[in-house]
Amino acid sequence: MPATATAKLDRARKQGIEACGRIAEFWGFTRSMGRTFGLLYLADDPLPQAEIQKRLRISVGNASMTLSALMGWGVVHKVSVRGHRREYYRSETDFWKMIAGVLNRRERREIKLALHKVTRAVAGARSAQTTARGAARKQVDFTLERLSRLLEICRLGETMLDMLLGQLTLDVGQFRDALKV
Questions:
Q1: In this structure, is residue 1 part of a structural domain?
Q2: How many distinct structural domains can be found in the chain?
Q3: Which of 51, 76, 140, 168 is disulfide-compatible with 47, CB 3.0–4.6 A?
Q4: Cβ pair 39, 88 in contact under 8 A
Q5: 94/75 Cα distance (integer angstroms)
């Protein structure tokens, strides 16, 4: 490849790697995770950790923690390279598989936690409702109504995640009821 083509390709790859870093950061992951994924995604062949460190100019510790995290998310895989003893890494290339895995692990956990907390809040407000009188009762009723709507939205979020991941079919009525003003 002519020198100018090689330089242009290197620049394009660096831009792609940096874009992956920015996207990862936007979604709440570290920039290193995005950049590491981007490097592996744009690499023709699997890379050893030392090469990843060198190309991204990151420390041994950063590379190690980042690769472990990416493997935990199912975004990067260890692979064997014939004739080499050290570990090599390759990115997942099925974007839907990656997105579904992250949604299933991270977003589902957050939605379940929110559901648990809001359910407890609703129970607390209902408990307060039994003894509240006058202006206090009005505040309890208002809070309970708002918490109940928040609970509906949390349940809707869980349903949407299930639908997105192909575990449920669409029930338009549920959206209409939860989003009414």
A1: no
A2: 2
A3: 51
A4: no
A5: 9
Give the residue-averaged pLDDT of 44-66: 97
Q: How confident is the model at residue 181 (pLDDT cuts 50, 70, 90)?
A: very low
24: three-class secondary structure by DSSP: helix
CA separation for the pair 4, 6 (Å, rounded): 5
Give residue-wise pLDDT tens across range 2-26.
779 999 999 999 999 999 999 999 9
pLDDT at 146: 96
Domain that holds residue 68: 6-93
Task: State how far the Cα of 157 lies from the Cα of 152, in Å rounded to an integer.
Answer: 9
pLDDT band for position 175 (cuts 50, 70, 90): low
Instruction: Examine residue 135 and state whether it is found in any structural domain, yes or no.
Output: yes
